Amino acid sequence: MTHKPTQAILNMIHPDTYVRPTSKKGLGLFAKRKFRRGEILWIADDFDVKIPLLNYRQVAENQRRILDIYSYMDNFERVIVPWDEGKYVNHSCAPNSTGIIEFDNLTIAFREIQPFEEIVEDYHCYFAHFETFICRCGTPNCRGLVGCEDPYEPQLRLHLGEIVDDIFSYPQPLLSYKSVENIEFLRLLEQFKDIKQLKSSYHESQLNGHCATTHQRL
Ligand SMILES: [Zn+2]
Question: Which of 22, 73, 101, 162 could form a disulfide with 128 if both were Cys (CB 3.0 to 4.6 A apart)?
Fold first, then answer.
């Protein structure tokens, strides 16, 4: 995997995306080209606004209503407001991108996304979001009402182990920037890569009828 950017990275939204108005949901984020499963579309960076939940609760009601449209809460009880186009990712009950269980604050394609297709997430993959609205995604399994009290649904996210090979298969321009989140994510990626390599050499040795170099269950 190369982390070299295809063009200058100005923020942590993928450079092959763009924002435009949608018919029903205000602004939305769209793909300039086809994305494949495993391509990272957004990752938090050092410039995003991260408001501790206690401070968020003290924000005046009229200001909070605006904040709620563009923010979500992560697993550290921080209200995250992306400073880049990441804040325009809309909800859909048939999403094409999601988060990762082991690493919060990242959006990744979990299926192919076609050029000019809107990039959408199911907001229930966040630990919490703060908007209640009638969903107009128009998909057959639409939830109808998306509520700010709805529980987090971890099954909507991917486990890193099931996507790590895809992540390593493609250039990941967003990982070229050395933010606090990126450094942590790269460390985690390397751990998963090592575990997969150990697993594969263990199974190979079993298939070959040799004693495994390690009998640790991975
Ligand atoms: Zn819907």
Answer: 73
Q: Under 8 Å CB-to-CB from 15, ≥6 apart: which residues? A: 5, 6, 7, 9, 173
Is 53 within the bounds of a domain? Answer: yes
Residue 118 near residue 89 (C-beta atoms within 8 A): no
Give domain status of residue 4, yes or no: no
Task: Tell me the per-residue pLDDT of 79-102, one tens digit each, with 9 for 90 and over.
Answer: 999 999 999 999 999 999 999 999
For residue 167, give its domain range.
Answer: 17-176
Residue 56 Cα to ligand 1 midpoint, Å, equals 27
Our count of domains for the chain comes to: 1
Can you give the CATH number for the domain in which 124 is found? 2.170.270.10
Distance in Å, CA 30 to ligand 1 centroid: 18
Residue 29 CA to ligand 1 center (angstroms) comes to 17
Q: What does the alpha-carbon distance between residue 35 and residue 172 come to, in Å, rounded to a whole number?
A: 11
On whether residue 188 sits in a domain, the answer given is no
Asked whether the whole model's pTM tops 0.90, one would answer no
